[in-house]
Amino acid sequence: MNLPPLFAAWRQALRAGYDAHALRGDVIAGLTVGIIAIPLAMALAIAVGVAPQQGLYTVLIAAPLIALMGGSRFNVSGPTAAFVVILLPITQQFGIGGLLLCTMLAGLILIALGLLRAGKLIAFVPYPVTLGFTAGIGIVIATLQLKDMLGLTIAEQPQHYVEQLIQLVRALPSVQPGDALVAMICLTVLIVWPRLVPKVPGHLVALVVGALAGMALESSNLAVATLGERFSYMVDGVSQPGIPPFLPDFAWPWLLPGADGKPLMLSFELFRQLLAPAFAIAMLGAIESLLCAVVTDGMTGSSHDPNAELLGQGIGNLIAPLFGGITATAAIARSATNVRAGAFSPLAAIIHAGVVLVAILWLAPLFSYLPMAALGALLLMVAWNMSEAPHVLRTLRIAPRSDVLVLLTCLILTVLFDMVLAVGVGLLLAAGLFIKRMSELTDTTSLRSAQNQLLQDLPEHVAAYAIRGPLFFGAAEKALSVLRRFNPEVKIVIVDISGVPTLDMTALAALENVLLDYRKQDVALILCGSNARIRLKLRRAGIHLLEGQLYYVRDLAQARAKALRLLPASAPTSAVS
Question: Do 156 and 181 meet the contact criterion of CB atoms below 8 Å apart?
Answer without folding.
Answer: no
